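Ticket reopened. Same input as before:
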Amino acid sequence: MKALVFHGPGQKSWDEVPDPRIQADTDAIVRVDTTTICGTDLHILKGDVPETTPGRILGHEAVGTVEAVGPAVTTVRPDDRVLVSCVSACGRCRFCREGRYGQCLGGGGWILGHLIDGTQAEYVRIPFADTSLYPLPATVDDEAAVMLSDIIPTSYEVGVMNGAVRPGDTVVIVGAGPIGLAAIAAARLFSPGHVVAIDPAASRLDAAKQFGADVVIDPSREDPADRINAMTGDLGADVVIEAVGTPDTFELCTRLVRPGGHVANVGVHGKPATLHLESLWIRDVTITTGLVDTCSTPTLLRLVSAGQLTSAAFVTHRFAFDQMLDAYDVFAHAAETGALKVSIRRQL
Amino acid sequence: MKALVFHGPGQKSWDEVPDPRIQADTDAIVRVDTTTICGTDLHILKGDVPETTPGRILGHEAVGTVEAVGPAVTTVRPDDRVLVSCVSACGRCRFCREGRYGQCLGGGGWILGHLIDGTQAEYVRIPFADTSLYPLPATVDDEAAVMLSDIIPTSYEVGVMNGAVRPGDTVVIVGAGPIGLAAIAAARLFSPGHVVAIDPAASRLDAAKQFGADVVIDPSREDPADRINAMTGDLGADVVIEAVGTPDTFELCTRLVRPGGHVANVGVHGKPATLHLESLWIRDVTITTGLVDTCSTPTLLRLVSAGQLTSAAFVTHRFAFDQMLDAYDVFAHAAETGALKVSIRRQL
Amino acid sequence: MKALVFHGPGQKSWDEVPDPRIQADTDAIVRVDTTTICGTDLHILKGDVPETTPGRILGHEAVGTVEAVGPAVTTVRPDDRVLVSCVSACGRCRFCREGRYGQCLGGGGWILGHLIDGTQAEYVRIPFADTSLYPLPATVDDEAAVMLSDIIPTSYEVGVMNGAVRPGDTVVIVGAGPIGLAAIAAARLFSPGHVVAIDPAASRLDAAKQFGADVVIDPSREDPADRINAMTGDLGADVVIEAVGTPDTFELCTRLVRPGGHVANVGVHGKPATLHLESLWIRDVTITTGLVDTCSTPTLLRLVSAGQLTSAAFVTHRFAFDQMLDAYDVFAHAAETGALKVSIRRQL
Amino acid sequence: MKALVFHGPGQKSWDEVPDPRIQADTDAIVRVDTTTICGTDLHILKGDVPETTPGRILGHEAVGTVEAVGPAVTTVRPDDRVLVSCVSACGRCRFCREGRYGQCLGGGGWILGHLIDGTQAEYVRIPFADTSLYPLPATVDDEAAVMLSDIIPTSYEVGVMNGAVRPGDTVVIVGAGPIGLAAIAAARLFSPGHVVAIDPAASRLDAAKQFGADVVIDPSREDPADRINAMTGDLGADVVIEAVGTPDTFELCTRLVRPGGHVANVGVHGKPATLHLESLWIRDVTITTGLVDTCSTPTLLRLVSAGQLTSAAFVTHRFAFDQMLDAYDVFAHAAETGALKVSIRRQL
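Engineering reply: fixed in the latest deploy. New output:
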């Protein structure tokens, strides 16, 4: 089959590789119908993720069709149309039994396109298929569904649920890239009073408005803290979601949150940040971090299916499998291309 | 009356000052029967708390007897024996109505011995008396009760409740000073599997054992992370409580916590800490900070009254009011004197 | 002044009575600008509420203007436009300090138009004014605001919050009278997958659709359990809200709920119901009852103000004060008049 | 092998039957070392559980040694000493993924000794072995461990966790049989202020004191409501746990609970109860029912292992396997024999 193979920092190609095979009784082989690219794939390509070694097929998001299942698989069958979750769950360890699949101790967690071959390929092997694949209703099309592999559960669980958004809240999202936009849409599920997006790029602030932000702030033009204080009687925001992954944006979040409020970190960080405990120790702040568990996937699927949650709107560009390298090119230059998420399909 | 007056950094004396008077309809005047000294009083004396100005009577902990009440006070009367809470609550603002008295927007919060005259005096004026004083049952003596002004609710609310201690947990307390010891005792209320105390002072580790720690670690002799990992199958602690207030101890806490665990900061910090988001972003950690609200005071009073919670055991030294300066001396040199909390009483 | 006075079962009149006066330091006198009638007022008139004695002015809902305040009142002043909450809160007792104002032990709770004179009058005395009145923003008009006295917080707190509605849930509301309709609108704040209304009156099912129900069931035409089972893969509803107050409707709720689901009782009951523990004991069901606390009033006011929550739409008929008896007539015959809530204003 | 076989109402015998065999890839065969008898077994023998058909081997509690495992089992191996949970979990369905194993939709739930052959036998087949067996540390002996099959998790989850016991609470347990005693011990984990046991049998009240009740009430001698009101300033109990299973005891629970309190039903009911909504609708009561999930088993195992929770103390009588019928005799006549739980061991 064909697959997008990582050949070391800066190196990738669309190669002919052997088809995957069932290795364990709990495996399934899925024919990939639609996949996409994540910012994490770009991190791997930069060499930021040393445990991903050359030769690895990338990608952890897909919608596909089950080709074959191991003898212990009971919840999906060949020909089922399924969502591939970015997180695999052994279903047996302590953390899986608490729904904390991202921290799976039994060989799961984020492994696809990271520790084992991934979804940017014609076929992919999915370990622990019973607890890592989700049958899809016909009413949810591939482009809407594939956003449920990673971006929507991540923003919902790590951003909105960890941040404990409640009706009437002032919610600030720092960073209006794809994850930040998904957090805006997910926060709206809880009827906040205001959703504020902060980003220096005008095009992203426009997108933020379309995904549900009612206030947008360009931090190069005005001080976000002044604006949030003016909106909240000088208290600060109830919930602040970090969706960038830099020390500066994290520290901004801790300046914007009100006493008793939440800072939910979603961004992937490569460097430490400064935590201003000399002012925060007394302010009753809760800070959370997290990898997505995808425990919310069934709920989110119901919401997308019921039209309660925007999903397909993230797709700005479409490609066929053999245009995989073009898709990377467009996604990697989002500032110029305006790409949010790209859809890469077996059949365009 | 006589009172301990702050005269600027490094300066204090036991002075004759005017008696306090009712200023607002909701005030009470309390005759102080027993008071104590807090580490925060030492911070003020060092000059670390600029909003506390010379001439201020210090102290925010007391048991006393109501002398007089303003016309709007309904829940306490003259001659009632009461606990003075370290936090005053207007009872009307948004935060008071959520039980978050420490963040009171209506003139309360931590004001005693900070923004208004405090309890290290023969008499003290208590604003918002209905929501800041607690009638005491005769079964709880002064020394047990005065620990409920600050140290016990702080360790319970900001440490144990924020840290979400549950039965069977491995709970680590970093710092075995008075607040850390109180956190050990408070954590025991939830039947953790292990309570681990970390402190470089052997005498404090001995005290930790007496207050309920079953494992003690001197970080100068062994690596706490190695020990905690050995105890927890390399997962880390469920809950880590910071009870020191330095960057190093805070960062240690974030190294000891398991995926999905809680770091509850209780320590008063004067400097920022480094938050290692490059490793923590993916670990599902919850970090909390907070000032005590004293919303748990009625519960804690029931527990002390029922003998469920150690309280009087914190008192290591006893003084009469006119030995106030000696009491400060002993408390300020805890390393040599072994002082935990001192009791300073009208009548010894 | 003029007021609607209860003269014993079946007896009421619009009488000239003495103006109310400040009785306690914490009282306020409010000039009523807009009031309304509640089903509970009809219960009192039927003689179902024996503690309400002849001579009592009825009514517990109003928007008005502060005329005078006692010396201990600090959060409202004369000329402030305010919402009168149906529940008064002493602000000092155990339950008020937990935000459970409906159970106030200090003389509050539901007292207006019940144990003391109420709001269907030109003026009303409000005890504990600081914790029982809410200043209104100019952007919320009287008819929208007066729904926040009782009906909206009741449906939100006792129905939706107690029922723990979450995104994607199937929520069933049994009874589509005013409280049921308010529960439909309030449930929508949490983005349920489906909101199902059950009522035998076609006009109410039409109203239910307008307030946000996507499925309506007339129980005289189809078995609600069959329909809910068909919608939920035979599991049952996640949340069922009882908004009628009869044994039959309550028992229906317990048949419709899924294992692990919630039945939230909002209805006012005059008779016991049968609880089928022989089938429910094993089904992990949570059943809640409650009187409104109005602790959510500030949140709901923000939501109404931000246009997130329908409020004024409940008003179907409008009257001037001197048409009070006509208003009762229309409201008491809702089946014929189609009345949901009536607005009764000083100036029409 | 030998096994206790149900032959229809009132009929049982200790029979020679075929050994169990692996039927599915996820099965294990466990050699039973210690088992016990549950009140539910007596219900089956009375004919109260029609889905249990003649020929069924009874029993759902055991400690044993793994003999063989199917090819898909990964977390236990032959010769592992294991706890058999009374609830089996498929680990894949919606409810299992929420930790609600008692409601398993994938073929689990309470099946042992109910829908499939159980543990009162020399060997037992355990479906879904990876998620239904728990390896035992050597420090927990068989008699302590076998109480973790059912009685301790049931009282902890369905009684104490559902009842939301908190420090300082007044907790009432109605019924001091084995489950009620286990609830007393489990409630103590959260440091309640008082644990009150209500039972008409003096011997059970004595046992209640030994398991941790500090107040005992014989309802034939004094009115429990009077006593609880006297203890709680006429408020009622914070948490009331029903551990009998009759309409009268359930209704007593609803009379004893305070506004805002919890009634947690643990008892197995055969008849409906009357729910006095005419008084309860306004009292903010939460009523829960439930089948045990055994999701707390790992936590409880840690607590028993750490000596934090009494377990072996339930065993009052000991038998060898071939005395199985004697064991039933003693257990079925607990009033005369004083039996709490019996231990039935391969080797006495």
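Chain C has a mean pLDDT of 97. Chain C has twelve helices and 16 strands. Please confirm and we'll close it.
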